[in-house]
Amino acid sequence: MKRHSIGKRFRKLKGLRKADPNAIIPETPKQLQDYIETLTNKGVHINKVKYAIFQTKNGLKYPGLIASEKILSNETLVSVPKDLLFTTRHAFESPLKQMFLDHPQYFSNQFYPSWEDHQLLAYILYEYQRGPESEWHLLISNLPRDIDYLVFWNHEEQDLLDDEQLVKLARKQYQEFLVEFETLKCITDKYPNLFKPETVTLDNAKWIYTHLVTRCFGKYLAYVTMVPFCELFNHECTDVFYDFEYNADNPNKSEESEQTQIKELTEDEQLSVTSSDGSYHSEDEISDSEYITDNYDQFKEFDFDQFSEKSTKNFYEEFTRTFDIKQQENEEEEEFNKRIKELQDQQIKMRKDFNIKLNLQREVFLLSRDCKSFIFQNLDYGDNYSIFFIGQMFNKLEKSIQEYINGGKAYFMAREDVKRIQLTCNTYRNNLYAFQKDVMKKPIYQTTSFQQKRSKTQNSTLDNVEQILSQPLDPECEYYKPVWEKDKFDRFVMKASSKDQFEKGAQVYFCYGRLSNRMMLMRYGMTLEYNKYDHAHLRIEYLKYLQNHEAIWLVHKYQLSKYKRFKLKHTTFPIDFIIFCKSIFWTFNVHSLDSFFKIQDLKLERKALQLALEILVEEISKFSDKLEDNEKLLYDNTLGYHEYFAVIYRLERQRIYHHNINLIKICIVVIDRMLDGVPFEQATEKTQFDFDYCETNRMILTKYFEQMRYALYLPK
């Protein structure tokens, strides 16, 4: 089955690690050649890779590295002594140190999470103006000015992405960049002895900032770092990674740092790669929350205090009328006193009965309230499914209280109802946590997701230079660490993984991380065709699917997001999206609780799949152009780089939608076969929606189909 994974299929389609017949090995530009010779003389080793020019499908040219010989697994491609690395430590220990100390509001991590970028931006601009006198002159002069990333695209180019939320984020970050630039300019203008007037300009700042965002390393290094020569590696879904080497006498050397054996892979071994060794996970969360802030008046939660006050008032009004007695004409005093005594006894009994009833009603209400508190504390109103379940639980609690209050239900039955609902909620919580942990591979947070999201929106932002630089300073605070330690390794190396090799003439890539095209645009200004880590963001306005007033009221009360969000991927079946659709049809006391997160009712599952299909078909119809048209556009030689990457972005989202639609159609066919009595093994055979990828699709659907098999053997 490993031969049929999405990664293998995409790698084959793109010819990764294979010789590129369109690659050109030109004479290396003199400035770059001087740089490489200088680096080599200082101890940099470059193995089997050299400068080359590659091209996109429509003929756009771009530089990269080509394999000058066959590259075997575990081979080191580039080795750089750590003293040649360009880091934040160099910036801080430079002539700019006093400027940094004078303005911690901009250059210290106590105020700014991007403080290292600020220091490096100032330092690189300072070194840039020094020209050949700078020890970093060749590194800086070889940073091209003709690259950028999404934040710096013009509005027309950004709109080509057809992704409103991504464009919104890019424009927001551009405004933040302008504020950061203006702040830097304000600071550097105070130091004319350090900065020439023509140095700190918007164009220069964009140029350097682009390279800080797109070319720096940092996750496993002590500081944000520029690595000489290694910025020439382009990104792809290969397994080339960076690592650290230690000299024999380095006390930080460990067994893990020992070099692995270089070897040549067989074809089967190349096909067996199932993960990115040495690649690094990256979050891809772009907040696009819009919250429901209007009021909802079609439901009002039962108010016991109000009920108690009204009941007591009504009781005593009736009580007064009933016991307003007068001595009757010719009635003996003794008889009248006896009647008063009887009425007083009756009054005592009525008061006692009323108080007992009210206390029992209060007890049931408090049990109900405790149950709601349990739900609030243990379930996330803002996740993708629970509001449908919680709405039904609130509905049952409200009905049970009302029926008991109105005399339609006995006390002990009302108590049992509340207890049963709480047990149901507890079971649901356990099932939800198990699903999140075992299926979705997500951590369980003590703070609920919707609480986290609401708190994020309350964070204040600094909108101008004055706000940033006027932040008060604490004279007792150390805004910078006293000692800036050096990295503990001796050499930074770029390596092929244990199951990675490149033919002679192939482009040699470095895997920047497991990044979607969305995040690549935000970090590198590029997109990849057939990116196995890509995903499409699906946003669903779910209010129209809520079927009871309690759920709608909760959404308004807690100002939850207007949308439920899902990531549709190439590599996995969208089980969380299917469960969202199933939660719409799931009914308490009709369907089993286990069927919420598992397949136990094939008819219920069939409804969920059908709704999921309808939603995706509707979503893909919103694209302004068709998939086939975008595929043709990739060969349009009138497109520039930004337009080309925008086409890929749209195209890959469409491919993901079509892929997931086909997976859902396959599941519907299989369930229909099973409902018709076809045995499981025959039911899961190839369908008309598998096309040429039956093995790949079965690999993706394995776990989902196993649940279907299990459902066949459950008692009806």
From TrEMBL:
Keywords: Coiled coil
Keyword check for Transmembrane helix: no
Coiled coil spans: 326-353, 599-633
One Gene Ontology cellular component: nucleus
Molecular function in Gene Ontology: protein-lysine N-methyltransferase activity
InterPro entries with a match to the protein in the record: SETD3_SETD6_MTase
UniProt-listed PANTHER family: N-LYSINE METHYLTRANSFERASE SETD6 (PTHR13271:SF34), UNCHARACTERIZED PUTATIVE METHYLTRANSFERASE (PTHR13271)
Protein name per Swiss-Prot or TrEMBL: SET domain-containing protein
The species this protein was found in: Paramecium sonneborni
